[in-house]
Amino acid sequence: MADKARIQEAVKAQGEVVRRLKADKASKEQIDEEVAKLLELKAQLGGDDGKQTFVLKTAKGTRDYNPKQMAIREKVFNTIVSCFKRHGAETIDTPVFELKETLTGKYGEDSKLIYDLKDQGGELLSLRYDLTVPFARYLAMNKITNIKRYHIAKVYRRDNPAMTRGRYREFYQCDFDIAGQYDPMIPDAECLKIVYEILSELDLGDFHIKVNDRRILDGMFAVCGVPDEKFRTICSTVDKLDKMLWEDVKNEMVKEKGLTEEAADQIGEYVSMQGGMDLAERLLHDPKLSQSKQACAGLTDMKQLFSYLQLFQITDKVVFDLSLARGLDYYTGVIYEAVLCQTLQAPTPAPAEQNGAVSGEEGGVSVGSVAGGGRYDGLVGMFDPKGRKVPCVGVSIGIERIFSIMEQKAELSAEKVRTTETQVLVASAQKNLLEERLRLTAELWNAGIKAELLYKKNPKLLTQLQHCEETGIPLVAILGEQELKDGVVKVRNVATREEVDVSRAELVEEIKKRTSES
Amino acid sequence: MTVSQIDEEVAKLLELKAQLGGDDGKQTFVLKTAKGTRDYNPKQMAIREKVFNTIVSCFKRHGAETIDTPVFELKETLTGKYGEDSKLIYDLKDQGGELLSLRYDLTVPFARYLAMNKITNIKRYHIAKVYRRDNPAMTRGRYREFYQCDFDIAGQYDPMIPDAECLKIVYEILSELDLGDFHIKVNDRRILDGMFAVCGVPDEKFRTICSTVDKLDKMLWEDVKNEMVKEKGLTEEAADQIGEYVSMQGGMDLAERLLHDPKLSQSKQACAGLTDMKQLFSYLQLFQITDKLSAEKVRTTETQVLVASAQKNLLEERLRLTAELWNAGIKAELLYKKNPKLLTQLQHCEETGIPLVAILGEQELKDGVVKVRNVATREEVRKASQKRGWGNVCSAVEKIL
């Protein structure tokens, strides 16, 4: 610090020298010489002139999580992870950035949304865009052919965040995937069962899960006269059906993507179909569709899937919907998306979906998907030098949307969200009892009880009680001069204000009993 | 075919290829993680989960909340906060928007969070990964992406209570993780600065001398002193004075003693630090964790006296006296060096908990005495006469013990 002050003084003085020389119209060489000295002095200050700037914002599209949000987040993660563990999944973690080459060529048009790291002389790196490509890399790298894994972590996308719509550039993804060659549709059915369990336990209201199959879609396009090279692009137009009306979707197909009106109409007929196993059966006998081998394979598997879903007892919320066409390129078989059925009375519009699926309209129909996924058999093979395939099926839970909903719920409900789990505040009723407070608090900590005390030598009792009210601490252990003489501690229930004297020896037991009851 | 026809078809071909995303459909196989980073496999994740659970339970037991911040900050936020280490920050590529950098630690984001939300009081923990572009030596376990686990108490409170709670938390976590024995060293910046001042270190050298002293856990005193004198330009006298202080360890008693140290007590700073240190130790006693603090050392030897020499060429005398002590049944040691420095011998006592040192010196030998010093208090306990043989010294030592 002394150094900086000295240099700052020297800078000022030298600045004066330069100014005077210029005013006196001294020779160019002289001025240049003194200016050089000035610049060198300024350089010593480290270029920030000793001023510390503190920029009080987060990067665009990112945000902090405050303690309330963290408490909600923890609850949501606990529910989800319990479900994954119940189904026997393991977890892994991967670095936040990958070699740029690893991510190149995997995301199609979305590649322009990848965050690159600056070339600082080493490897070229990019922040991960999702958890699926890192997963495929992990499997290939470790030559793993079978794994049931979940991975909850943040991913990064440089799209245009509309913060009011809740679209972030840094957001959580929560993925569950089953990799390996197995008998068809059983793992696919378990994925759906897991989505069903999680959405039920999170208590988000009614939901339903749409299912379709890439092969059925492709078969449908083929028999409707869509040229092969337009499959993917027509697919992404059909995908917009949950945001746009059919007329506009048809318009895009005909006017922008060059489809004949006839083809568009035929597609229109199919994509309005919804049902269960019965629909799959019916379509297997559809004169046009049954001409496509692909579509038949998909429909047969769809029947098999529904039979398993019946055994899992979840068909009440699953529907085979021919309009479902998820965005990402790498799906090869069954695809699915879960949507909530009702809107909340939210003051701010519901956030946009970030899984690649699309958000719904506000104030009316669905509020957007909260989970999505499907089968992708070709991805891992892309990473393996020998092209060995590892078939995969998985689901991504729309965690950010769920956080948003839970946060809104918390705001609207009367119940307070606690940000700490403290069970007892150790308080003093008179002055000069800090020692006793410290001693008792340590005793409680050593017994595993969650306890706090105020960092004040002589806090007022009222202040201590207020702290409990504000932070939701249910019990107070009050030390008082008379009570200490009598060998007891007053235990007060903050909510009911009931107080009872408990002997010091039995205090730990008593607190444990009361906190386990709640 | 005409040129224009060919061109037309070539254009279509290029357009088709472009749709493949520019990689010609050939996929490159990159099967590695970035330098300095690694995956965690399921076994590692299971261990990690256990460790996090233990640590987080402890934080929660103490009433801490948690926050999370983005993995990157605006470059400006991180600029100017890390001194020389700034060159280790990962920058994001300028892609037309704000300039961004990956977070280097969790403390600067914490400070930004407090300022941004105008928070004056919070007890928070934050467990998350941070990023540093230094040269990873994977075998030495140094990564470029690694976890930090921070706990901080922000706010104006009565002195030393939150400080004591931080130490209690460290104690609880290390005990519960079952990593074996540990100890926690405590000191105070004000005591260090006061010490430097009274030892004659110029103000502008404080920080740099401080970082040299910091190397004492890796280097021997001789080398640390060497760096202070030869590289940092301290006088040998100042270095020696520092040397005497930095070999001291203890508990509240040491703080009390130093408050009466004629030299150190001249520094107001040091006195403030020492007074707070005493207060801290009183709280730590109430928290019952002083056993793992510098105070009570668990000794591995039972040596009662070190026989030391104050000048060169006194090995013979040392050997003779040590033998006498042994013959008298007193547990004694000497350093296996012909000409050890006195400070080194005293340090050995401090480190291994030897309570007494018998110092042989040229003048004293002429006068026929041996100085016996209490290592902890540095006080001379006795000047034992050896005129009629070392036996007197032995009995003197016995009496002290």
TrEMBL record, chain A:
Residues 3-59 form the WHEP-TRS domain. It catalyses: tRNA(His) + L-histidine + ATP = L-histidyl-tRNA(His) + AMP + diphosphate + H(+). Keywords: Aminoacyl-tRNA synthetase, ATP-binding, Cytoplasm, Ligase, Nucleotide-binding, Protein biosynthesis. The keyword Aminoacyl-tRNA synthetase applies. GO terms for biological process: histidyl-tRNA aminoacylation; mitochondrial translation. Residues 61-427 form the Aminoacyl-transfer RNA synthetases class-II family profile domain. GO terms for cellular component: cytosol; mitochondrion. InterPro entries: aa-tRNA-synth_II, aa-tRNA-synth_II/BPL/LPL, Anticodon-bd, Anticodon-bd_dom_sf, His-tRNA-ligase, HisRS-like_core, HisRS/HisZ, HisRS_anticodon. GO terms for molecular function: ATP binding; histidine-tRNA ligase activity; identical protein binding; RNA binding. SMART domains: WHEP-TRS. L-histidine binds at D130, L131, T132, R157, Q173, D177, R326, Y330, Y331. Its EC number is 6.1.1.21. Belongs to the class-II aminoacyl-tRNA synthetase family. This is histidine--tRNA ligase.
UniProtKB/TrEMBL annotation, chain B:
GO terms for biological process: histidyl-tRNA aminoacylation; mitochondrial translation. CDD domains: HisRS-like_core, HisRS_anticodon. Its EC number is 6.1.1.21. It is an enzyme of class 6 (ligase). PANTHER family: HISTIDINE--TRNA LIGASE, HISTIDYL-TRNA SYNTHETASE. Gene3D superfamilies: Anticodon-binding domain (3.40.50.800), Bira Bifunctional Protein, Domain 2 (3.30.930.10). L-histidine binds at D105, L106, T107, R132, Q148, D152. GO terms for molecular function: ATP binding; histidine-tRNA ligase activity; identical protein binding; RNA binding. It comes from the Eukaryota. Residues 36-254 form the Aminoacyl-transfer RNA synthetases class-II family profile domain. It catalyses: tRNA(His) + L-histidine + ATP = L-histidyl-tRNA(His) + AMP + diphosphate + H(+). GO terms for cellular component: cytosol; mitochondrion. This is histidine--tRNA ligase. Belongs to the class-II aminoacyl-tRNA synthetase family. It comes from Pygocentrus nattereri. Keywords: Aminoacyl-tRNA synthetase, ATP-binding, Ligase, Nucleotide-binding, Protein biosynthesis. InterPro entries: aa-tRNA-synth_II (IPR006195), aa-tRNA-synth_II/BPL/LPL (IPR045864), Anticodon-bd (IPR004154), Anticodon-bd_dom_sf (IPR036621), HisRS-like_core (IPR041715), HisRS/HisZ (IPR004516), HisRS_anticodon (IPR033656).
